[in-house]
Design goal:
The complex is a heterotetramer, with two copies of chain A (317 residues) and two copies of chain B (263 residues).
Chain A (H helix, E strand, L loop, with lengths): L2 H11 L12 H5 L7 E4 L9 H9 L5 E4 L5 H8 L3 E6 L12 H8 L4 E4 L2 H13 L3 E4 L6 H4 L5 E4 L6 E6 L5 E9 L5 E2 L7 H7 L3 E8 L2 H6 L4 E3 L6 E4 L17 H13 L1 H14 L4 H8 L1 H12 L5
Helix pairs in contact in A: 6-8, 10-11, 12-13
Chain B lengths: L2 H8 L5 H11 L6 E4 L3 H12 L5 E4 L3 E2 L23 E2 L2 H10 L4 E4 L3 E2 L5 E2 L2 E4 L2 E5 L6 H7 L1 E5 L25 H4 L6 E6 L3 E5 L6 E6 L5 H6 L6 E8 L5 H10 L8
Parallel strand pairs in B: 1-2, 1-5, 5-10, 10-11, 13-14
Antiparallel strand pairs in B: 2-3, 3-4, 6-7, 8-9, 11-12, 12-13
The chains are: A alpha/beta (317), B alpha/beta (263).
Chain lengths: 317, 263, 317, 263
């Protein structure tokens, strides 16, 4: 009756949750992810996407990753296009409204080479939250009467035992691993996030393993001077990787905005021919460079400086 | 309205998108709490804030309360830092969606790819969902917003978008009309207005079918019906909207100088 | 079937949630609370207790307030002793472990002049959280097999529809009004809280009305420079009262620590004779002074300075 | 042990509370995540941190992760700012309790007013709960902690506290023994150790009844049984604990110079 709960606890209990340093390289962190893993991805659309870690997973040749995220953007297309993933669970999947409906998403889902499992945005959030809370489900009041709910065998409708009204119960989602990018954390993994947090805190607590990438590693002393700014505790974190511009070409709140020129170039590339376009992009920007730094060099210093200039002025007034 | 005045009115100096944004923005009232989607809704809500609603509170799905988006700095979705410009609060996306469920939001304000006579929206599949012609990006927060609050939908008026029955209900309107929305487990909210580049529509109180309330200058009921894939009801007295003013267009163009959303 | 939910929404819909100033006096804020109201109290034990507001409610002669709080301390005794409340819902109720079991709590509960409804600490949190989320209940995994659960007709045990395991469902708690004290907020009610937050955010969102007291009112511009520090949004707030030292003799994180001498004096007073002790304390410190400032003067500048000195050094290192 | 050595050992230069704090602190291991209650648990966990567990993570119910409480600045409950001293993270009290449910905590560490042979704790009512002789302060997080993780309980060894059946189960141990805890819906956690000023006890694997594992210096099994209100099991080989060292007492007294908890 309680096997699933005991298994969840076992997986947490066996992690080394002590106060210890866990700084490693992108490649070492990628080795923590196994083929077939359920991978929860932090951020949303173009924001705080753990792009460097996704890039490293694709380069490491991962297969059959089952990926979940509040809203998927181009990182989902790279996962499909590279063959690293054939299944995403999200509420919305396209590069972004300004670029029209993504051609790569359409190519893969319409040809059934990959599956796009659609839940409402709040439902994705409730599933991570249930996972974070250690309960098997949470109740909610949307999705009823829609085609979305009708296509989800994992959700259940009930009559509330207290009020008799109709409710939807969504099951906990506990990814095998969560990938989360933050502005700063210490070597133990105490993560402080500025600005929009999306579902990252619940995702981190729901996952059975957390890989943090960070713009910069700060001292534990700095963390302790503002402990109420810590959003993910060290004991939930299994790897820390310092990757400046780790979300490029997406944004990192307060540090850099999206690299719009690069994103326009990417959109144009896949618009003409999604299959060839994504293959070309992967060759040039993911498989080609020797390192994340070389990838950034390909995007170019001019775009980096421009994105950073825009990113840092968010609260200039 | 005579044919002559209609023709004159159509010789307009604004695009269909601009008309849509202005007309949609007018539907919002000062002091309301509005949950706005990206694109025209974000733009129209910001326009309303600048024109007649300084106390209009805009919520974005990414997790923003009370933002004042900066002219020329429109975000590419509701999840980027531009959405938090001069915001009163930034919170998790789950928590901002829960405000809808808790009842804090007056109006949900969205665009739509396909809508039917009961206000159901489809942004998931064109064609058979099991074998779609086009896989669309999906619900995002659309389903949550339309399930939990009063809705204003802003969209282009085209026959292929206004269909008798959507291929798929992504975001529920009144479902099959009558009490079917409530019976499905959605006692709150529902469609309030659909605004297009031709008309402003509401819904019949009993049948919950779409009904023309007002026409934009130079537009006839016939033209609206010609561009709609189902029989439209019409109010006993159909109003005519005021054309966009100089000031409205000026502020709108100032907000979106790159024509990101008003192309 | 959904009357309770529609009623909850109606009560929120009818509040003026626009961006408007709502600064008022303690007395004006007290007038927003009706006899018999369900009152949720922010903070916990000796921390960020909205003492000035409770003091104002007692002075205003409120009756039959049904009070809930994560953990109740001396403020609960003042509510009992003054006759303002005959019912508290909490997980723990005593002045604090160092002063032994509270004599006033014992006097009122053992004589059945007042009721102390005991839920586990997490259950109180889940009840506020369900209220904040707008769902009728939340599931949890504690309280089972205990006497605590056995005495709570409002909680239900179920077999999980997903896993078959036993779970407890606790019902949403939506107080008529929440009293919350913060370090700073603006005139609209955008509240920023430092340090320990307890259950205050969920409580604020669960309540049908929120009265904020604050150490100081800051400009809306200051709030907007760090919107991710706002913990309670203006639209959930109905009254803002500026009350420096508004938690005295309890603490306000980072501003002042508890007034230990005063609390020792209070403990001594009620230890000898709880009935007379609390009556004496109420006369002297609640009914006696003309204003909160005069109340603080009675406690004395020396204790104020000492508490503030201790309070401000929390992150000195 | 002869009567003579026993007498010598009892001529100790530490109080019962100090002995309890030292013995309790020794049960914690470096690297563990410990959810500590106020009083002796808080003190003993901080002592362990300073003596042998620099990587011991202490959680407090008020919402603190990884605190290092300052000597002489012990908090009056786990909800004051003193608990957050040099903490790694401060979070809501609901969220810190949820860490227990999610399985992040190795040990729950509490005091107790009354305990029975199955490790059930009572901190709610002395006498009939409907008509109590004494209304105690209640569970706080105790019920959640004991329901969701492995427990160490530290308390004074007195007959009135160690009773056959508690007047009220505030915080469940093994309930009625055997599989009754699991059957009640609590598959995880359970009583691990009860440490007193006389002894360290565990629980029988099958019956889940309390069992003496070790005696403190100069204490006999008979003395423990005399001070216990129910038949105690005893391990086949009962260990004798090392007396508190100079260093342990020195650090302990440095932590609590005002004898707030070690009076």
């Amino acid at each position: 009756m309680s096997e699933a709960y005991l298994e969840l606890r076992r997986r947490t209990a066996e992690r080394d949750r002590s106060l210890r340093e866990k700084v490693m390289s992108l490649e070492e962190a990628a080795a923590l992810v196994k083929d077939g893993d359920k991978v929860g991805i932090g951020g949303s659309t173009l924001s705080r996407t753990p792009m460097a870690m996704i890039w490293a997973l694709i380069r490491a040749g991962k297969k059959r990753l089952s990926c979940s995220r509040s809203i998927m953007s181009s990182e989902g297309e790279l996962l499909f296009g590279s063959g690293a993933s054939e299944h995403v669970l999200t509420s919305w999947f396209s590069q972004g409204i300004v670029w029209g409906v993504s051609k790569v998403m359409r190519l893969y889902t319409e040809s059934k080479r990959a599956r796009f499992e659609e839940w409402s945005h709040m439902a994705v959030g409730m599933r991570f939250k249930a996972g974070a809370m250690g309960v098997p489900f949470l109740p909610m009041r949307s999705m009823m009467g829609s085609g979305v709910l009708a296509r989800l065998p994992d959700a259940r409708q009930i009559d509330c035992p207290f009020t008799g009204e109709k409710l939807v119960l969504v099951p906990a989602l506990n990814p095998d691993v969560a990938l989360i990018h933050v502005q700063r954390c210490d070597a133990f993994g105490n993560a402080q996030m500025d600005g929009l947090q999306f579902m990252d805190i619940d995702l981190a607590m729901a996952a059975n393993r957390v890989i943090l990438t960070t713009e910069r590693i700060v001292s534990n002393d700095q963390i302790r001077r503002a402990p109420d700014q810590t959003k993910i505790p060290f004991m939930a974190v299994d790897a820390v990787v310092e990757v400046p511009f780790g979300c490029a070409p997406h944004e990192c709140y307060g540090v850099y905005e999206p690299f719009f020129k690069h994103l326009d170039m990417y959109a144009e590339l896949i618009r003409k021919d999604p299959a060839k376009g994504i293959a070309h992009y992967l060759d040039r920007y993911v498989y080609g460079p020797k390192s994340w730094t070389e990838y950034l060099s390909l995007i170019g210093v001019e775009e980096m400086l421009d994105a950073a200039r825009r990113g840092r002025r968010i609260h200039d007034d | 309205m005579t044919t002559e005045t209609m023709t004159r009115a159509r010789q307009r100096d604004y695009t269909a998108s601009e008309l849509l944004a202005v007309m949609a923005g007018r539907l919002l009232e000062d002091g309301q709490v509005v949950f706005a989607g990206v694109g025209i809704p974000l733009l129209a809500a910001t326009l309303a804030q600048r024109l007649h609603g300084p106390g209009l509170t805009i919520l974005f799905e990414g997790g923003t309360i009370g933002a004042f988006v900066e002219p020329g700095q429109l975000p590419p979705s509701t999840n980027e830092q531009r959405c938090t410009r001069r915001a009163n609060m930034v919170l998790s996306s789950t928590d901002v969606l829960l405000l809808l469920q808790r009842g804090y939001v007056d109006i949900g304000f969205m665009g739509g790819a396909q809508i039917d006579q009961y206000g159901n929206l489809n942004s998931s599949f064109i064609g058979d969902p099991e074998n779609p012609t086009t896989r669309l990006p999906g619900t995002g927060g659309g389903n949550d917003i339309s399930s939990l609050t009063q809705m204003i939908v802003a969209m282009k008026h085209e026959k292929r978008r206004f269909v008798e029955k959507v291929d798929f209900i992504t975001s529920p309107g009144f479902i099959r009309g009558g009490t079917s929305r409530r019976d499905a487990g959605l006692p709150a909210g529902g469609m309030y207005r659909v605004v297009t580049d031709l008309t402003v529509m509401g819904f019949d109180e009993q049948t919950k079918r779409m009904k023309v309330l007002a026409l934009h200058p130079g537009v006839s009921l016939e033209e609206v019906r010609d561009n709609t894939g189902f029989p439209l009801l019409a109010a006993d007295r159909i109003e005519t909207t005021e054309p966009p003013s100089e000031r409205e267009l000026q502020v709108l163009r100032h907000l979106d100088p790159d024509k990101l959303y008003i192309a």
